[in-house]
Write a structure and sequence with these properties.
mainly alpha, globular
Length: 101
C-alpha cells in the first residue's frame, strides 16, 4: 500500500478521538488556508462516519452537513459551527501572539 494511503488510514483512525480531531483542526485553522480547512473537516467527518458506522438510521442533520462538505463549496461559518457540534467539537477564538495596530 502506498505511504499516502497508510498515512490517510492512520489519520482517520486517530481523528476518531475527539481530542485528536480538535488538535488537528486547530492546527489547520491556524494555517488559514480555506482549502486545507475543508479537507481537514472532510477528514474529521470521515473519521466520525467510521466511528459511528454506516447504519441506515443515521442522523439526517449529520447527513446534510456531510453532503455539504462533498459538494465542493466552502461551507459558511454557521454551517461549520453546526458540523463541529456534530463532531463533538466546538470553535474558539484566541488572540494572535502579536497585536498589530
Amino acid at each position: 500500500m502506498p505511504n499516502h494511503k497508510r498515512y490517510h488510514s492512520y489519520l482517520i483512525e486517530s481523528l476518531k478521538e475527539p481530542a485528536e480531531a480538535a488538535t488537528y483542526l486547530d492546527a489547520v485553522l491556524e494555517d488559514g488556508n480555506p482549502e486545507h480547512i475543508v479537507l481537514a473537516l472532510k477528514n474529521a467527518a470521515e473519521a466520525r462516519r467510521n466511528r459511528v458506522g454506516h447504519s441506515s438510521e443515521q442522523d439526517p442533520v449529520w447527513e446534510n452537513y456531510d453532503q455539504l462538505l462533498h459538494q465542493g463549496k466552502t461551507p459558511e461559518l454557521l454551517s461549520i459551527l453546526v458540523l463541529l457540534d456534530e463532531l463533538g467539537l466546538k470553535l474558539s477564538v484566541t488572540a494572535k501572539d502579536e497585536l498589530t495596530v
